[in-house]
Model the fold of this input.
Amino acid sequence: MSLSCFLFASDVSATGPRITKSLLSPNENQIYSYDYPPFTTTDLEMGGMSTEIIDAVLQKINIDATQIIVPLQSMVKFYIHQEQPLAVYGKNLNFNQQQKKHLTFIPIGIMNSQYVFYKPAHKENVSWNGQLSSLAKYTYGASNGELVEEYKKENVKVKYARTHSLLKKLISKEIDFMKMSELNRIWMLDKHFPHEKSGFVVMNNSDKIEPVFIIFNKKHPQSSHIAKIFKKGLAEIVDSGEYLKIIKKYRTQKSKQEQHMQVLSKLLTQVH
Done:
């Protein structure tokens, strides 16, 4: 089966975004992201929170582009190196220093990542004191492609799988804990584990704020120009309130909305 058979495209133009099942796009301005609901997903008409944010900026700066959502994070890394798209989207794609020289990172939001365990599989809570060494007797469930050296250094066993499989492995006690963003955890449990979701517990004090980026490819002929005006357009939708309106659809707690906006504002001041 051809790799392109897995692609789903979100076409963006000045007239507004739309989600389609187009497998190929003639648009030379392509932006790849991986399926990670509710941030980027083909399960939502508008493509998820991050997809909507990127759409809004592209409309503001009047740039035509095509967002393509693929199933795996590893596919996003493949495309930016092999296909030379305009940009990709992601949290931590583990680019090395040489690769970063050819990329421009612009933060467009944040994820609240947390360690999760399945309470019925443990008589006592999985204890976390802020140090991975306290988790040495447990097995960590890592996403495919995730860097795990810090876990192995502390003698934490590691097993790899995709998110849905990792959640099943928590229930079966094949793994003891995994890391998820708060919104992705809520989405996945509501959709796939409605009867077991009350058993999934967040470890105390494990919340970590992680930025998510649109990452422009400097090898694309329009990259430098579009990255520059993209940052300006992002600031404009933040100032106008359009950005906040988008995240309110996905973040219902006012405190989380405020935290999101505060962290984003700080991150944007660090982009040159």
